Amino acid sequence: MHYLRKIKDRSARHVMLGIAVFAVLFLLVIAISLFIKALPIMREKSIWVLLTSGSWRPFKGDFGFLPFILSTLHVSLLAILIALPLSLLTSIYLHTYASRNTRSFFQPFIDVLSGIPSVIYGVWGTLTIVPLIANKIAPNFVEFSSGYSVLAGGMVLAVMILPLLISILLEVFRSIPQEMTDASMQLGATKWQTVKKVVLRKSFPGILAAVVLSVSRAFGETIAVLMVCGNITEIPHSLFDACYPLPALIANNYGEMLSMPSYESALMLAAFLLFIIIVLFNALSRVILVQIEKRYSL
Amino acid sequence: MKNFEEQFFKTLMIVSASIIIGVLVFIIGTIVYKGLPALSWDMITKLPGGGFYLGKEGGVLNAIIGSLYIVGGSLIISIFLSIPVVMFINFYLPAGSAFGNITRFTFDILFGIPSIVYGAFGFALMVYLGIRASLLGGIITVAMLIMPIMMRSLDEVTRLLSRDLPDALLSLGATKYEMIKVILRQLMPGIVTAVLLALGRGIGDAATVLFTAGYTDNIPNALDQPAATLPLSIFFQLGSPVAEVQNRAYASAVILTAVILVLSFAARYFSSRFSKNKL
User: Fold this and answer.
1) Can you spell out the DSSP letters for chain B?
2) Does the beta-carbon distance from B257 to A116 stay under 8 Å?
3) A99-115 residue pLDDT tens
4) Which of A1, A107, A112, A278 is the best substitution to test chain B (most B C-beta atoms within 10 A)?
5) Where are the domains positioned within chain A?
6) Which residue on chain A is closest to B22 by alpha carbon?
7) Interface touch B260/A213, C-beta < 8 Å
């Protein structure tokens, strides 16, 4: 009887270890299989040409990713430009000024914002942001814009990354030792001076990590961006031009293009690029965040 | 001057916090305003009828059931995979072990991978295994997406658990396996929260099922049949030039939003119960 218990324990241990190892290796499996799928196109053309050429004519064998890469960059950077000030101010407010009640009042809003699916943001964007840009904002600057544009993508993405930004920023601020802010306040600094000279300065690496993490979230957003960006294969020259980010390219064309091996491989390369960049960004910011946690929790 | 700056920034902060609340209200308000008029019992209880995509009668029951099947299946897979991993790194490994840290780090990274990449990978895997776009394909791919979510939130509640109970169990002579069976009962509210979070994320995601689950007007009754999903039904109906069909997309969006809201508040309820238990 006793022996049986030991065997049960031992085998449970091994099964669990097996699953854990499998889970860790899974990341590698994804990387390798995407890479293998992307190899054919990289054999055909040098990676440099693929990344820097602006000509995308799959049926003639031209696969230049530049318009898509630039679209992704424009949309994501615009999103972080809009979202960062808003979320910095809000999380400073929640951390330093707000009462406990205000904070617990606010939390559900962030939870719901982060829970709303991408496609709902997309519907909202096409209903409100796109017409707003086409009818109200764009006419002041350019002759014509359909509204499906870099600006629309950036605005919708900004809202989508807000909850992630705020929750990481709050965590970062929380990791600053209370004694430090207390000391500053006791020396006669106002709350805002304490925030400016102590909190923000101390949490700079954490803010950086939050930004990097949110940008990589924006890089990978698919359906919402697909619905509001216009999807025209051109390098966007203004905020009111349509654009075509990488995830939208994959979503629109993958699955139907199995008949053209090089097209499929090119789309897999797009997925591989997204994967590598996002993994690197995530790894970088997670390392920073873990360091912060370690430094202050002791 | 000092006071002016203080006031200025405080006002700015309150303004931005209000903007964020306002945006959320605006989003939900827009969806409800546009969708509610087209929402009817038929939407929820009927399959698409003949000429549904031209604005004729029918509903999106196929998508509702399809989404539930896919998320249900993927939840089962991810529960059975993530609980052992979390238990292993928390109770079998010594605190601060390298393997535990590597596992947590990997799940942080997997959590950040966008759903479109899982979708593309899932599709490539299905082609390799010879599976067509189907319920099974959707379940596998969505499981990849929600695994890291489950695992991270389970790990968080497990780490919050006091060490007294495990220590007491072990000193009474229980094996670790027996100890874990008891602890899992203690962790139940945390597990429910994790499941609800994963459910919300899985049911709303479109990019994972875009290539892998297919789309159909029927309710699938086998794993190898294609399955419709709610986010994709919104997406496809919105692309229609017919106004009635577009209005139905808004109505479907109301359904999805309502589901997400309910899940989100339920998760909050269970996680608050958990933190009460802890004290």
Assistant:
1) -HHHHHHHHHHHHHHHHHHHHHHHHHHHHHHHHHHGGG--HHHHH--B-TTGGGT-SB-SHHHHHHHHHHHHHHHHHHHHHHHHHHHIIIIISPTT-HHHHHHHHHHHHHHHS-HHHHHHHHHHHHHHHTPPSSHHHHHHHHHHHHHHHHHHHHHHHHHHS-SHHHHHHHHTT--HHHHHHHHHHHTHHHHHHHHHHHHHHHHH--TTHHHHT---SS---STTS----HHHHHHHHHT-S-HHHHHHHHHHHHHHHHHHHHHHHHHHHHHHHHHHHH-
2) yes
3) 889 998 998 999 999 99
4) A112
5) 2-50, 68-297
6) A109
7) no
